[in-house]
Amino acid sequence: MDNVFYRAVNKKLLEVDRGEGIYLYDTDGNKYIDACSGAAVSNLGHGHPVIIEAIVEQAQKVAFSHLSRWTSRPIQELGDLVAKLAPGSLNKLYLVSGGSEATEAALKMARQYYVERDGQSSKYRIISRWKSFHGNTIGALSMTGDKRRKKYTPLLLNFPHIAPAYCYRCPFGKCQDTCQVDCALDLERTIKMEGAEYVAGFIAEPVGGAACGAIVPHKDYFKIIRQICDHYDILMIDDEVMAGFGRTGSMFSIDDFGVIPDMICAAKGMSAGYSPLGAVIAKEEIFNAFKQGSGIFVHGHTYGGNPLSGAVALAVVKTLIADKLVENSRTVGAYLLAQLQEKLLPFSYVGDVRGKGLMLGVEIVKDKQTKEPYPVKMGMAEKLTVTLVKHGVVVYPGTGNADGENGDQFLLAPPLIITKDQVDELVAAMTKGFSEFAKIIG
Ligand code: PLP
């Protein structure tokens, strides 16, 4: 019975039996609100009849064919639909099977782009930020800026990281009134130090996810980033693996910042957990460089763009639009944020409640005035999330920080189908869990 090598080998896991809407049920019949959509994946909730029908229909036709020889109607239609939804000229969909594969593909695509465009190139580095997560493969981990990378150093690629846009703990000691968006200018400083001739791209999550609990940058942050990338001829890679396809209340979270990136990495919400899929959505100019250059992107994963995942994603994205779930994410998300701020901020150990749409984060602290965090070793956010499970709420497990000391957050990302009544149910259960936790920590 116990021959599975789980990632947290000593952790007791819940045993899932079935799911329905925003709820999951364990094999003992207990009901839980899936308040993190797994890992911000199940955006349409569980057991959606339209998606189940699409799965059955496609599986009866053909589940798998390989992109080395075959394309299929579902992936072509998906490409057309995504091209309409993505900003600017980002209309070329390169399909893979998940988020890490997507960021790896973007890394390689950025490097090869300059070779295709210029004949040869020394541009190979990707700059990223601390308090970021871009995936678990070694290339993606090299770009990641949190504790997950520590056990695997030295990483294959020694990529530079810049300061995060972390307003609650501004790395430059500023506050709202004195902010000059130094965290964006840090990119220029780093490019100059590294030499722009060695830098191929800058990657960032517009709203940070797994490594930071939904931090939202200053409204001008990405405008400055875009200008710097243009000035130094560096590709701006937008990692929307978690935030994309409606999670933050816009189709892509970058849409709210008024800039157009050069590539978007997507996964999770694109197929909403019904079949694995990921993608790089590249701008026309990048595609053309490959078309007019060698004609081949040296990168392929066996399951990338299989017809079954294509049909699922097509049905998911169509449902997202038809059921106005991006709008729901925006309005119900704003309501959830306001409710959580009202009910949770009064607890002495809650430092910050933040986020955008239905991508929200809670940061707990030892001292609210000084913002002193609990030592990450105490795993306070993780303990709190275990208490919430007892109250029937499953949130994303607690995350720490790159230096392993500063900050202790968890993420809240319920399915985008959640209603206001269900938000009330969620907030009531969370408030009970937070009260119990207050007693536990004294
Ligand atoms: N990028 C971001 C922003 C993510 O949040 C994640 C996963 O949480 C990844 C990349 C990696 O995706 P996957 O777990 O599908 O490989």
How would you describe the overall organization of this protein?
The protein has 442 residues and is an alpha/beta fold. It has two domains: 16-47 and 324-441, Aspartate Aminotransferase, domain 1 (Alpha-Beta Complex), CATH 3.90.1150; 51-322, Type I PLP-dependent aspartate aminotransferase-like (Major domain) (Aspartate Aminotransferase, domain 2), CATH 3.40.640.10. Helices cover 36% and strands 15% of the residues. It has twelve helices and 14 strands. The chain has a seven-stranded mixed β-sheet, sandwiched between helices. A four-stranded mixed β-sheet has the order 1-2-3-13. It has a three-stranded antiparallel β-sheet with strand order 11-12-14, with helices on one face. Strand 5 (125-129), helix 5 (138-143) and strand 6 (161-162) form a beta-alpha-beta unit. Helix 6 (182-194) runs parallel beside helix 7.
